[in-house]
Design a protein that fits this description.
By secondary structure, the chain is mainly β. The chain is built from one helix and 28 strands. A hairpin with a 4-residue loop joins strand 18 (about 215-220) and strand 19. It starts with a helix and ends with a strand.
Length: about 325
């Protein structure tokens, strides 16, 4: 076989593999799990049922958070950086082609972290600059920035109508509510507990739940009034992420300090259950069907699969070294 024929055969094989991944995700009720591995600096596509790693793509150093575009064509990974080397890029990955399409340089912004994709654009935090920004993939440019003035603006969470964007500000013990009105944006700074990090929106869009990393508590914020309406003692040593189940009945908190998952009863505002998942649980993902949760157990280099009916770990998936951010491909 000559070089031309070999090249064509390789391209056809790669295309067939890409088609298989996307088609299988579409046909399977389970979808596909997308995972970022911090230490490997890789993005992987995983069959959540078999645990097989179907594809692997290199990204920038110290990747933390991951989000998929609404149409499922692209994934974005925030390359936070490592140690004294702050990152300033975001990897844009073509999921079907299984390759990094572009490495977006966000400089002079630094330490990109939290990500959200909505209305065709990517929102991200620039932690070192106390800012959030918006990237337009079609135009390949950052078209908007907002300075929170808060220390360690870590995660970003827009409401579904994009009228308000919430951020967790670890170093300022606050949550910002950045609201749009008449073409301008204004900020309400909401005091919460110590070290707010994980943040999520309730399924009905009425509440924001903020997990504090340094006092073991969770603040519940009313979206309409932008005020804390409840504080729950979750008893965590170091909360990392929080996710509400699709039915709104429970909030799942990963406790990086104890190795536990803490489950809160959302209506009773109390601890419902606590169980061990492994060393340093971080990212939490709940697919739309709500039957299971995936927990990135960073210290064990695995993703734990949790049955949300029995509240037990049913298996652990070996996805790479230091898993953290996750997303779901329908």
């Amino acid at each position: 076989m000559d070089n031309g024929a070999m090249k064509i055969a390789f391209c056809l094989t790669a295309a067939a593999a890409a088609f298989t991944i996307v088609a299988a995700a579409a046909q399977s009720g389970g979808g596909r799990l997308l995972v970022l591995n911090k230490e490997d600096a890789t993005f992987v596509i995983v069959n959540p049922d078999s645990g097989a790693v179907l594809a692997k793509v290199g990204v920038g150093q110290g990747p933390h958070e991951l989000v998929a575009s609404t149409d499922g064509k692209y994934a974005f990974a925030s390359n936070y950086g490592t140690g004294g080397a702050p990152g300033h890029t975001i990897s844009m990955i073509d999921i079907a082609a299984q390759k990094e399409l572009r490495r977006i340089d966000v400089a002079p912004l630094s330490r990109p972290h939290g990500l959200a994709f909505t209305q065709g654009k990517l929102y991200f935090t620039a932690e070192a600059d106390k800012k959030i920004a918006r990237y337009d993939p079609a135009a390949d440019k950052i078209d908007w920035q907002f300075e929170t003035g808060q220390n360690a603006t870590h995660m970003v969470l827009p409401t579904r109508d994009l009228r308000t964007i919430f951020t967790s500000n670890i170093g300022s013990d606050s949550v910002s509510a950045i609201s749009q009105s008449g073409g301008s944006w204004t900020q309400t700074v909401i005091p919460v507990g110590k070290g707010p990090e994980g943040i999520d929106l309730s399924p009905d869009g009425r509440e924001v739940w903020s997990a504090h990393s340094r006092d073991g508590r969770v603040s519940v914020i009313d979206v309409a009034t932008k005020k804390v309406v409840a504080t729950i003692d979750a008893g965590t040593k170091r909360s990392n992420r929080i996710k509400l189940t699709p039915d709104g009945r429970y909030a799942i908190v990963s406790d990086d300090g104890s190795g536990d998952i803490v489950v809160l009863d959302a209506s009773a505002r109390t601890v419902f259950k606590r169980f061990a998942v492994g060393k340093s649980p971080e990212g939490v993902l709940i697919p739309p069907d709500g039957g299971r949760a995936f927990v990135a157990v960073n210290g064990d280099n695995a993703v734990a699969v949790v049955d949300l009916k029995t509240w037990t770990v049913t298996k652990k998936l070996q996805t790479g070294t230091g898993p953290d951010g996750m997303a779901w491909l329908r």
